[in-house]
Automatic annotation (TrEMBL):
This is Uncharacterized protein. Keywords: Membrane, Transmembrane, Transmembrane helix. The chain crosses the membrane at residues 12-33. It comes from the Bacteria.
Amino acid sequence: MTSLTKLREIRVYFILGTLTILLITAITLQLFLKQKGKTGQIWQNIEISASLPKQTTATKVNFLAEHLTIPREMSVIKLTPNDIDLDKSQELAKNLGFQQQPQVISSVIAGEILLWRSANATLSVDIQHKTLHFERIINYKQEQKGLVNLDRAVESLKKFLDNSKLDFKNFNIEDPQFNLYEKLSEGLATEDTQKAKYIELIYPKQINGFPVILKSQLASLKAITDYADEVLSLDLDLNVNAPWEVEFEGTTKPFDKIIKELNEDKGIYLSSIGKPFNSTQNNLTINTLTVTEAEIVYFEDIKETNRLVPTLYVKGETVLSDRSIEKVGIILPIINNFEFVVKSPNPKP
């Protein structure tokens, strides 16, 4: 009996000792977490498990309880917020672009985990263990290299530069500063991609001292955007019948060099802005023309062929057949054959 009694006493002391150790550990951990929370830092233990560029650091992440901004280079990020709860989890999910209600996954070990899914990302929040895991399914760098199809855009632009009468001696499509994809992304990021009809590129260099914007009409466009409306992937096709447009601003000086002879055999000739312009076809004469702005844009020629043709609008004070008008429209298709028509849509009395 004595041996049995001692064995029972040993078991009791062992159990009591184990419980005491667990209690002390729990109290210590609670005090540690409470003290840690007083630092005022909302997010702790930042773990980034994606291959990031050297310049990308954790400081680029905006750690706020009500909002979370994740750089586009980060495909996977794991955070341990010390005060995450259900309301904050839902607010974070909303800010990250998840509109639907979360799926609740129950686990004996982990407890309940809230899971959000979208076409290009997943977000899971373990409130019990204070863990948030965000994964962007579509990797930005891979999409940029893989799905972006700009061959036809570049080919069309080169063809335009070769065939046009405009002076683009300083224009180099291979210029490393001329990032075609980035320019397209910037233009599409703030627009409804379903309504976008044009590519618009701003060439980093100036021609004759003035900035140049190139445009071309799209036949089709497919863009995938993330929660911040940043273009992740872009697949486009140019309208083969739509040439590139040019939009430029300045005074009379650049146009003396840019605008060249147009279709001399029709008696239509323009040597330079500011000099008399004679059109034997329309019997019109521009006596004086002060240019303040010019741009080539598309308009629809409904009466004739229902086709889009590029039009050069010269805005300024113009005298045309003794009538002062605000705008002269010049039809200028940039494909081999050139037409040149002067009209006065807004004549002044």
